[in-house]
Write a structure and sequence with these properties.
Blueprint: H1 3-28, H2 33-66, E1 73-77, E2 87-97, E3 100-112, E4 118-121, E5 133-135, E6 140-143, E7 148-150, E8 156-158, E9 167-173, E10 176-180
Antiparallel strand pairs: 1-10, 2-3, 3-4, 4-9, 5-6, 6-7, 7-8, 9-10
The structure holds FE2/S2 (inorganic) cluster.
């Protein structure tokens, strides 16, 4: 073998040996450029999604969260109600349910008491929600569905209703009566 051949053999060995050394040191240095770019792109994408998503979520959820707000409704002049004579009043309630604005016909039983204070009852029976009526001859509220009976204060006299009649909030302003429904009760 000539000196030239020996020289080429040594250069070949060194070249191979350097390649092996280079590969080992690269694995010990940590993420490659490709891994770093992938991580950076993923992070930027997550940041943009969060920046757009949080306000969007608030916009989408806020109408639904406000859906339970109930307005005060004028149901008439106070002097139209006679003491001791329950009166059923009907009114249109404007409401916004999520993104839908609508009005619905609602009602309440209003009782003017001897001292001129008022009580407004939810017109649904506290048993299973049937509408009840005032029986003037017996002076009781009667629910026809399962013969639930309440007195004029809403107390259960007989039948399956588990609790007295539910009440709406009410207030008097400038000689007019306003009612506001409360969230339905369970049980
Ligand atoms: S719903 Fe009124 S007694 Fe049952």
């Amino acid at each position: 073998m000539s000196a030239q051949d020996n020289l080429e053999a040594v250069q070949c060995y060194l070249a191979n040996h350097e390649s092996v050394t280079l590969d080992r040191s690269q694995s010990e240095r940590g993420p490659t450029r490709r891994q770093f770019l992938s991580w950076a792109i993923g992070s930027i994408g997550a940041f943009i999604a969060a920046a757009l998503g949080v306000p969007l979520l608030g916009y989408v959820a806020s109408p639904a969260l406000k859906a339970q707000d109930k307005p005060w409704t004028d149901v008439g002049a106070t002097d139209q109600f006679k003491a001791g004579e329950p009166t059923r009043v009907y009114y249109l309630e404007e409401h916004k349910d999520g993104w839908i604005e609508a009005s619905s016909l609602r009602s309440a039983w209003v009782v003017r008491q001897a001292d001129s204070s008022f009580v407004a009852f939810n017109p649904k029976c506290t048993h299973l929600g049937c509408p009840y009526s005032w029986e003037a001859d017996t002076r009781q509220f009667l629910c026809p569905c399962h013969t639930g009976i309440f007195d004029i204060t809403g107390k259960v006299i007989s039948g399956p209703p588990p609790r007295p009649l539910d009440r709406f909030q009410h207030k008097v302003e400038d000689g007019r009566l306003f009612v506001r429904e409360e969230a339905p009760r369970v049980g």
